[in-house]
Amino acid sequence: MSRFVQKNKYNNSFSLTRSTRIRVQHLLKKYKEQQMGNIHFEDRSRHLRDLPLLSTDFNSWFQLSDWDRLHRAFTDIQTYWSMLERKRKQLEKEQNVQRMATSLLQSIKHIQLDLRDLMSQVSSQMKVVRSSWVRPTPAAALQNLQRSSRTVWESRVEGYIILRDLDLYLTKLARDFLLLASKTHL
């Protein structure tokens, strides 16, 4: 595959990442208003251990091979997709009980479609970088996502954390695609 075609693929992934981030930001705002009761709700002190790490040492990040960078992106996106799937199903159950607005559920589904498209693009790019790569099964990402029973508030905070971290992660992912695109013409 020519470098020009590969660069265009990375640029397309960058664009999809940016548009997905905008959707996540809108959903986070709506989620904070509807689920947290305060559009200005912020809590940076809490983290979920199942989410990908957001901080990265610059030298380690810069030295990653293209395949390692894409593989990490694929597994991280898959993790966020799985977390959103679990949260969406949980909200669907609550909706049946409380007649909650469906706009949150629709927004989550749209973001999941974007993440699925990103996974597909990254998978395709990985095959170009290393033709022997085999796609992992989604079930592996779901195994560690089972939670014990939580209060309604804890569950809502968990949803907030997922969206907050996904927003930050997509910024990091966009940088990866910019770096990959820039390397195609070196």
Automatic annotation (TrEMBL):
Coiled coil: none annotated. The keyword Secreted applies. Belongs to the IL-6 superfamily. This is Ciliary neurotrophic factor. Keywords: Cytokine, Secreted. It is found in: Secreted. Its main location: secreted. It comes from the Eukaryota. The keyword Methyltransferase does not apply. It comes from Ataeniobius toweri.
